[in-house]
Amino acid sequence: MAIRVLLVDDQPLLRTGFRMILEAEQDLVVVGEAGDGLQALDQVRALQPDVVLMDIRMPRMDGVEATRQITGPDRKGPAKVLVLTTFDLDEYVVEALRAGASGFLLKDAPAHELVQAIRVVAGGEAMLAPSITRRLLDKYAGHLPSGEEPLPDNLGTLTEREVEVLKLVARGLSNAEIAADLFVSETTVKTHVGHVLTKLGLRDRVQAAVYAYESGLVRPGAQ
């Protein structure tokens, strides 16, 4: 089955460019377009896309609020949101991730990265490119814990290995990369990630990464 994609951007020229790229792929189909968040909500309900390629800054309703409604507890379909941001990293991206986005992508990313990101998100994974994540978190370093504050109590529910996995997730590593780093199987990594999400009450890897930084477990610039 082809991955159904909804394009949401207030610039028609950009939507046309994205459509041309995606429709050249046999496993992707663009089912609709929207020019703002309100239109996006209507299109999601009507078209039931698998992935919404979501701009942040739009008239009437921005991408953060649209993401919150698409992925929230009252969601009506399977849609996952992949946020588009500009090269200098939109200040609303962190809010979009908190709202439920499955990741983010630069608007000037190469075509193959856009295609791969949609496939990754449609498959239930998070799109957390390490270089982009690092720049994003460095940008917000002044608003994040310094590392001197006490860690949240619920981190104590994690095993030592689960804490290791959480740190690597926060760095943007995939399951395969984490498995190679820890010398374990991908199945084992998936199990650890699942335990981390359950114990911390998190929805997905994106929320786990944000949590790791906001809690002070991982600091911007740290290896």
Kindly report the oligomeric state of this protein.
Answer: single chain
Tally of DSSP β-strands: 5
Order of helices and strands: EHEHEHEHEHHHHHH
Main sheet specs: 5 strands, parallel
Average predicted confidence as pLDDT = 83
End-to-end Cα distance: 39 Å
Which strand order spans the largest sheet, edge to edge or round the barrel?
2-1-3-4-5
Helix coverage percent:
40-55%
Look at the helices and sheets and give the structural class.
Answer: alpha/beta
Rg of Cα set: 17 Å
- Tell me what portion of residues adopts beta-strand conformation: 5-15%
Number of helices: 10
Q: pLDDT under 50 segments (min length 5)?
A: none
Principal-axis shape: globular
In short:
With 223 residues, this protein is α/β, with parallel strands linked by helices.
Overview of the molecule:
With 223 residues, this protein is α/β, with parallel strands linked by helices. The protein has ten helices and five strands. It has helices at residues 12-22, 37-47, 63-71, 93-99, 111-122, 130-139, 160-170, 175-182, 186-200, 205-214; strands at residues 3-8, 28-34, 51-54, 80-85, 104-106. It has a five-stranded parallel beta sheet with strand order 2-1-3-4-5, sandwiched between helices. Helix 2 packs parallel to helix 3, helix 3 (63-71) packs parallel to helix 4 (93-99) and helix 7 (160-170) crosses helix 9 (186-200). It is globular, with a radius of gyration of 17 Å. The chain starts with a strand and ends in a 9-residue tail after the last helix. The mean pLDDT is 83.
